[in-house]
Specification:
- There is one protein chain.
- The protein is an all-alpha fold.
- The protein has two domains: 84 residues, RNA polymerase sigma factor, region 2, helix turn helix motif (Rna Polymerase Sigma Factor, Chain: A), CATH 1.10.1740.10; 91 residues, no CATH class.
- Helix content is 77%, strand content 0%.
- The chain has nine helices and no strands.
- Helix 2 crosses helix 3, helix 2 crosses helix 4 and helix 3 crosses helix 4.
- The termini are far apart.
- 23% of the residues are buried.
Length: 180
């Protein structure tokens, strides 16, 4: 069953097919929250809240966009709402630091020996830049999907990511020169 068929069935009043969507996208949403630094003890609640919002607002989904992009936008907004509610920034910073380590090893395999230097570079990125790295490099989402999640134009997103990657390359080269 395709996503659109499932969505139409749920909108039509059938509740059971929604479980198929949850089972299909749960790992992606969980990975998204982990990589965005949602504290471990809050991930399950945030996932549940996200899927409740998706279920209640499924009629607002427009099939011209990928369902996964719409779902991750709902997840992102839920995460932001929860951060505002809890104001638990210390735990978020700790989890973001773990994210930086994951991103570091994804960018270049030889990084492990100079891990602290690269981690330092990633930790100094803004949260919005970390989000771009996560969505594009780790989640491997298309520019179109990311632009829909972040509600920006695809062209401005391409420019932002291009500039970010150029900056990171320069910073990495600088670190490598200082290590040699």
């Amino acid at each position: 069953m395709q996503d659109q068929e499932i969505i139409e069935a749920v909108i039509g009043g059938q509740k059971q097919p929604f479980k198929i969507l949850v089972d299909k996208y749960l790992p992606m949403v969980r990975a998204f929250f982990r990589s965005m630094g949602v504290p471990t003890e809050l991930i399950d609640d945030t996932i549940q809240e996200t899927f409740i919002k998706v279920y209640l607002n499924l009629n607002k989904y427009r099939p011209v966009r990928p369902f996964s992009a719409w779902l991750l936008r709902v997840a992102r907004n839920t995460m932001i709402d929860n951060i505002r509610k809890t104001q638990n920034h210390r735990n978020l910073e700790h989890e973001l630091s773990k994210t930086c380590k994951t991103i570091t090893t994804s960018i270049e395999p030889s990084v492990q020996s100079e891990e602290s230097d690269y981690q330092y570079l990633l930790e100094n990125l803004s949260d919005s830049d970390k989000l771009l790295i996560e969505l594009r490099l780790l989640q491997k989402l298309s520019f179109q999907e990311i632009s829909e999640i972040l509600e920006v134009t695809e062209n401005s997103l391409r420019v932002r990511i291009h500039r970010l990657l150029q900056k990171m390359r320069r910073d990495i080269e600088s670190v490598e020169r200082s290590v040699q």
